[in-house]
Amino acid sequence: MNYRTITHAEALHRSDATTLSTQSIALDLRGMAELETFGVDTLLHLVTSDPALCIDFLGAGVQRVEVNGEPHPFDFDGAVIRLAGLPTGEDVALRIVGAATFSRTGQGLHRFRDPSDGATYLYSHLEPSDARRIFPCIDQPDVKSRFNIEMIVPASMVALSNQPEVTRLPEGDATTFERVVFAETPPLSTYLTCFAVGNFVGKRKTWSNGKRTIETAVWARASMAKYLDDEFLDVTARGLSFFDEHFGFPYPWGKYDSILVPEYNIGAMENPGLVTFNERYVFRSRPTRAQHATRANTILHEMSHMWFGDLVTPRWWDDLWLKESFAEFMGADASAHATTFTEAWTNFAGNRKNWAYAQDQLPTTHPIKAEIPDVDAARQNFDGITYAKGAAVLKQLVHYVGRDNFYAASRDYFRAHAFDAATFDDLLSALKKHTSLDLDAWANRWLKTTGPDVLTPEVVAKGGRIASLGVRVDSALPSQPTRPHRVVVGLYRDSGEKLSRYAALDLLIDAKAGGLVDVPEAQGLEAPRLVVVNDEDHTYAKVGFDATSLATICKDLHRVDDELTRAVIWTALWNLTRDAQLSAATYVDLALTHGARETNTTLSTQVFGNALHAAHAYAPPARRGDILARYASSLWRLLGDAEPGSDAQLVLARAAVAALAWSPEVDATTSLAGLLAGQVEGLALTPDLRWSVLQGLAARGGVDATTLDAELARDDTLTGRVAHLGATHAFPTQETKEATYELATTPGRCTNAEVDALLAAFASPHSQPLREGFVRRYFDELESLWEAHPMEIANRLARGLYPYVPEAMQLTDQALSRDLPNALRRVLLECRDGLRRRLACQEVDV
Fold first, then answer.
1. Which residue, 5, 28, 269, 20, is CA-closest to 134?
2. How far, in Å, CA of 330 to CA of 425, rounded?
3. Cα separations (Å) of 44 from 66, 78, 97, 147, 183?
4. Which of 124, 180, 322, 686 has its CA 20 to 30 A from that of 514?
């Protein structure tokens, strides 16, 4: 297959020259269980002003091309079908018959064989430009058409697509195969078409608002169907009611199916009428409230795409944020207002924004509205800036213009551009009708700049009163201007057992050149024990603390009575740690003292994960072992004191298992074995928890292959097999590292899920000395590895095998001096920055 990216220049030419009305697609999937390819017959009805047309197709072959029913010459290079001599200015029926290849990477039409029952399943994932892996098309977001989809499948198998099935007809042997025909779609971008076939089992529910009804369903493969719960459809119904009211545009896609699929390479995808979710949202083991909240947020994120992205689609990927930032915002806003997970904005502040701040300080940071020259660049921008930073900036905008005005503008936007493609200027025009603010200036300062600002309070107190309070505004990136911030500055004092807010100053802080902004409203107020500049988390900025506030946090963080405030503080503390302003040891102490008392499980999970990373990556090498040992033993003691069967116990158990795996103390192996033996009262030893313990033991050499094989016999499922693969490749021996590296890097050998498990095993605790021989090998083989694997796998390998050792800094610079693919260059720049940050943090020892 000759992979080729699609450039913006090419896309502009095609959309100017070509209009599609309908596209019919017939997939012959009779060989879905045993063949490597499948047949595809596609018919495009179009009008073009250019007699030469390029059709995208990453296929196995093209048998014939017909124009208006007559054979037509073509050239096919494995990526593009080039046509010449097409009629111009009139309707053209372009038929292409060929073959495409089943996928194992989650791109295109992915095939999976269930180890539980041997059944074969197919599902598609096509964003941003992988529709061309299934059928010939013009694979860009602004060329929309109506789709008519048919699939030939084994008889009685479930077949799903964007629209409802309308008929099944016998195909050939009437008892063996059936041709499934689906209703025609509304106008749709190619990347939003979808296909799924297999022994899926569904749960159904009808939604109604009294005026219209929508049939909803959630599907899973047969062996996972028993884990489907009613909450999935309940959140779906709540979301449909919320968006029906707030968007004022009826859900436009007929049915609303959700499907949970294995080996998925992302979290979820907004295919209209058939939303795809990673199977991690099927809970085989008891989940915490945080997991339920995350799933609800994802369901609502994808649902908002039915309008932001599917109904109105960005013309090109430079406006990717127009759908992803909005969906990220809507997932939290709808969760907070339409579900029982009212803590959604706390979870966003304490979890998702960590992603944004980290991404936005990399050397590869980019504006929210980025320049995207081609599809490969677009793939790299599905990142923390496009999602979490964009959503945070939208939250700031909503605070500026008002929530009602924001939703009113959204309704105007949908009505004006329904079933079409649009740009940010179109959305800005809609917003301008509902506010007097200078949105052009706002957009220039927020959407076209990079890096976060840093807001730090400066307090002078006299006689128990505030003499002066100012907020210093700096840019985290020196070359960037600062932005306007509408914030609440919270002042806190002791209030019995709690630290409570006694003043909330709602301010517009705008220091265009940076500097100190005075807050005269604070003068004369009681001197606070704690000042939180971005209380309520309305803006996107890193937050600092004055000396008194930081001392209060270190002593009394768990006493702050509002969980959103605690989320803002926890995120600020992690930024300080990553910036080498707070030591790894101090962050670990904060996690043990206050994280263990945190009532929000999203926050406690995030804090414990950060603490472990700080201990093994940011701690000075001379103190690393002591810090890891202390962290692990402390978590083990806290686990023993936790309420049996509680969410807190489960969060602590997961954190303790991970920390014990890293601990240098011999007793940690005994603790892990004890946990596996059921010594922790009330802790359910679910398959997921058992595997995590076994993987930790394997990394310590504390279990043998026979025990791992016996566990696989107990849990011979997809999840069990992937976990077994990771555990058996985590043993701390040189031979194991060699075998793991070879297996992970062999082209076409492993699925994306298997590659992830192998990379985690390769980097498992206590294996750094065993990986020293791979440092130069990584750089010697990097470009060939990148070339040999599909983008999704290549990206995983380049990041997962990167050696975070001082020697790699110079080797990375040498690699960057070569002529590398842009996407690979970006990966190396980001890895090098991660290494630089580690080395800087390791110098902090206070």
1. 28
2. 20
3. 10, 19, 12, 9, 17
4. 322
> What mean pLDDT comes out for the span 631-656?
97
Across the range 440-446, mean pLDDT stands at 91
Average pLDDT for 514-537: 95
Question: Quick one: which of 154, 184, 182 has its CA closest to 170?
Answer: 154
Cα distances (angstroms) measured from residue 75 to each of 10, 50, 140, 636: 18, 17, 21, 65
Does residue 316 contact residue 141 with C-beta atoms inside 8 Å? Answer: yes
823-845, pLDDT tens digit by residue?
Answer: 999 999 999 999 999 999 999 98
- Cα–Cα dist 663/700, whole Å: 9
Angle at 304 between CA 302 and CA 307, to 5 degrees: 120
The pLDDT tens digits of the residues spanning 191-202 come to 999 999 999 999
Give Cα separations from 286 to 516, 602, 646, 649 (angstroms): 49, 15, 11, 12
DSSP 58: -
pLDDT at 838: 97
**127, 171, 263, 302: which is the annotated catalytic residue?**
302
Residue with tokens 């209030």: 495
Task: Please give the C-alpha separations between residue 366 and each of 316, 361, 371, 796, in angstroms, as whole numbers.
Answer: 16, 10, 8, 21
Start-to-end C-alpha separation, the chain: 55
In CATH, which of 1.20.58.220, 3.20.20.70, 1.10.150.20, 2.60.40.1730 is domain 1-198? 2.60.40.1730
- Is-catalytic flag, 781? no
Residue 164 pLDDT: 98
Q: Rounded to 10 degrees, what is the CA torsion of 27, 30, 34, 35?
A: -40
Q: Right CATH number for 204-369+396-435 from 1.10.390.10, 1.10.10.10, 3.40.190.10, 3.40.50.300? A: 1.10.390.10
Task: Band the pLDDT of 846: cuts 50, 70, 90.
Answer: low
Average pLDDT of the chain to the nearest whole number: 96
720/754 Cα distance (integer angstroms): 11
Q: How big is the CA angle at 21 (ends 17 and 26), to the nearest 5 degrees?
A: 115
Residue 470 pairs in a beta bridge with 458, 518
- % the chain with pLDDT above 90: 93
Q: How many other C-beta atoms can be found within 10 angstroms of the C-beta atom of residue 140? A: 26
Burial bucket for residue 588 (CB in 10 Å: 0-12, 13-18, 19+): buried
Judge contact between 297 and 232, C-beta under 8 A.
Answer: no
Matching residue, tokens 């075998």: 739
User: Does residue 1 surpass a pLDDT of 60?
Assistant: no
What is the average pLDDT across 752-766? Answer: 96
Gap between the Cα atoms of 453 and 164, Å rounded: 48
pLDDT, tens digit (0-9, with 9 covering 90-100), for 166-211: 999 998 876 899 999 999 999 999 999 999 999 999 999 999 999 9
Question: Are β-strands 465-475 and 515-518 bridged in parallel, bridged antiparallel, or unpaired?
Answer: antiparallel
What DSSP designation does 693 have? H
The sign of the dihedral angle between the CA atoms of 548, 554, 555, 558 is: positive
In order, the DSSP letters of 530-595 are EEEEEETT-S-EEE---HHHHHHHHHHGGGBS-HHHHHHHHHHHHHHHHTTSS-HHHHHHHHHHTG
At 599, the amino acid letter reads T
